[in-house]
Amino acid sequence: MRKRVISLLLVFLILSPLTILISSSNVAFECNELQSLPIPIQDPAVAYYNGSIYVIGGNTAGPYPVPNVYVYSDGKWVQGPSLPFALAGARAVVYDGSLYVVGGANFTNIFGGVLKLQGDHWVVVSNSMPRPVYNEIVFVYNNELYVVGGANFTGFTISPPSDLIQVYSFQTGQWEIIGKTPQPLSDSGYFFNGTVLYVVGGYIGYADDTACVYEYFPANNSWVKLTPLSSGIEGEALGYQQGVIYIVGGYFFNHGIIDPGVVAYYYNGSWYYPGFVESVPTEYSGYVQVGDTLYIVGGNELPSQDFTNAFQSIKIELPPPRPNLVYYTAGNGTVTLVWDDNSSSGYYINYWGNNGQRGSIITYSTSYTFSNLVDGVTYHFQIIPFNKVGNGTPSEIITLTPFSVPNTPLVKVKLGDKNATVMWRPTFNGGFPIEGYYLFIEGGNLRFEENVGNISSYTFTNLTPGVTYRVGVIAYNEFGNSSPAEVEFVAITKANVSLVATRLVNGLLLSWNSSQPSKFILIVSSNGKMLENLSLSNYSILLNLPFGTYNVTLEAVNQAGIQSTSLLVNYYLVPPLPQVQITLEGNLLNVNWTDTPYATYYLVYVNGTLFENTTLNHVTVPLTPGKTGVQIVAGNALYHSEPQIYTVYLSSYSNVVITDTTSTDANSTIVHSILPVTSTVDGLSINLTTALVILVLFIVSLAIIMVVIEREK
Hints:
Blueprint: E1 3-4, E2 28-33, E3 45-49, E4 52-56, E5 59-60, E6 64-65, E7 69-73, E8 76-79, E9 91-95, E10 98-102, E11 114-118, E12 121-126, E13 137-141, E14 144-148, E15 164-169, E16 175-180, E17 189-192, E18 197-205, E19 208-217, E20 222-226, E21 233-234, E22 237-241, E23 244-248, E24 251-254, E25 257-258, E26 263-267, E27 270-272, E28 282-283, E29 286-290, E30 293-297, E31 300-301, E32 306-307, E33 311-317, E34 325-330, E35 335-339, E36 346-353, E37 358-363, E38 367-370, E39 379-387, E40 390-391, E41 398-400, E42 410-416, E43 419-425, E44 436-443, E45 446-453, E46 457-460, E47 468-477, E48 480-481, E49 485-490, E50 497-504, E51 507-514, E52 519-526, E53 529-536, E54 540-543, E55 548-558, E56 561-571, E57 580-585, E58 588-593, E59 601-606, E60 609-614, E61 618-622, E62 626-635, E63 644-650, E64 656-659, E65 663-665, H1 688-704, E66 711-712
Antiparallel strand pairs: 1-2, 2-33, 3-4, 4-7, 5-6, 7-8, 9-10, 10-11, 11-12, 13-14, 14-15, 15-16, 17-18, 18-19, 19-20, 21-24, 22-23, 23-26, 24-25, 26-27, 28-31, 29-30, 30-33, 31-32, 34-35, 35-38, 36-37, 36-39, 39-40, 39-41, 42-43, 43-46, 44-45, 44-47, 47-48, 47-49, 50-51, 51-54, 52-53, 52-55, ...
């Protein structure tokens, strides 16, 4: 198997030097030789069925019609179910998932019917065609089989072929003749794209063929004549690609000389002859198009006209057809174009504006959006498709003026005490003045929607604290509305705050709570002097302050305002019981104590009367005979300790009993022996007996002196 790519301007010269009509239009063809058929074949029926190419009947060398069926699949040929009788010049179609063979002829007769492949054999579904034909045109439209023209004679003759349009109904099984062709036709190249039948050339009788080209519309049974070929042709293959029809091979005369394997295409109302040829020039081949590839089977090889078993594929690459714009719109400084895919490699888009702005872009998709255009300026756009062979037909020129509804405004909300002020400003007006705003809000039981005109703020009152509200603003100009700008907020009020002071050993603990989220300002002052001014977000603070009296003010600050509360705090702690030591010097009682925590002064009471207010830690109390009560109290500006109490007994004999009556512990009694004071009295003398008596009494009294110190609390 050989593969050959046909290059531009390749001319196949046959019998003599020949001038080929070559267009300046860019075009490319690719022709490949595939696996050859098992036998040479001419004029077979060919169809694409179940993913394979079927070659049915035809003439083999002799020529002899054959019933053979060959199937090409996965790169190789296999034998298919043979026809019940030999046929050449038949045509094949696929309808409703089944393969049909129509018409054809052999040595004995013309088959005027329809065969259907059913499993592994063929069945005759009709044998009553009004005029049996072969080498006809066959296609299916609207559940009906169309048979157009075709030869209806046997043997050597120059009689014209049929000009009838015969239609077979698959539903009723009946035939009818619905019209005629513009002229008798057989051996024409044809292609049906589902809507339009294209017919090129054909044998018209009297040993002549035609250069005519037609479109047939089965929807209304009408014919349209197109630009004819430069010369008559018959027995060629016809392909269809991107709205372009093209012929390959056939019996084609150019200025009276046969032109083997000619390739020509019809583009924008004209025929072009680029000088390409088939790999194996043929006529009266069978052919079928699968996708964008035309497969050509067998035929007479030119110029020898020997039957061939060649199997070829050919593709045509044309400049792209005109793009069909399906959508275009202008926006905010933008223009968007969308067009149908016409199998181009890419697209140039040229644009120019009335303001002098112009440019060109390239894209490989079927849509493009221009940005950075000026709103209000008129622009013009044209799309030019291209592929590897050149630029295609430009699209129509589209004229658009960018404009826009306004962009979404910017919105913010300022919260107040049970109110909210909604403020907004435009971002871009779309190139045209903003005429006003729509404002809406919802939340709780509030529903509000209104055109508020061309203002920039609005205040909502009597809102419910704690409720979430959704507010939106829509700007509009003469072209329409912007997208809504939406924000949510929670309504608030001034915060209710409560403040608590806790006196601790290591400082003053201030704590508080608030009914609304807030920032807090704490101000602490004493004697008119500010000591602390703190901005806080938490709910407590420990202040390391000396003992004293303080004014504490707490301000709760939020968007609704300021709410404050104040406390007068005496920061003192209760002093503990003083620790006292007592000594006696004569009739003077020395009272001493250690410094007491949290005390700033001490009170000394004698017999219930304040004797001393001192910051010292000692005092001297004179005693008189009898009972004397002494109390020592530690104090500060706010608190007094429990008193430390002592009771002192002083006898006339200078005997002293001191009792700590603060304690209830009996074991705290202590006896102190205090020597009597000896006085000398002028002019007084005593005898020895009296002195002994006094000495005895002194010893006795010395034995009974006790100092009982009893601590009471």
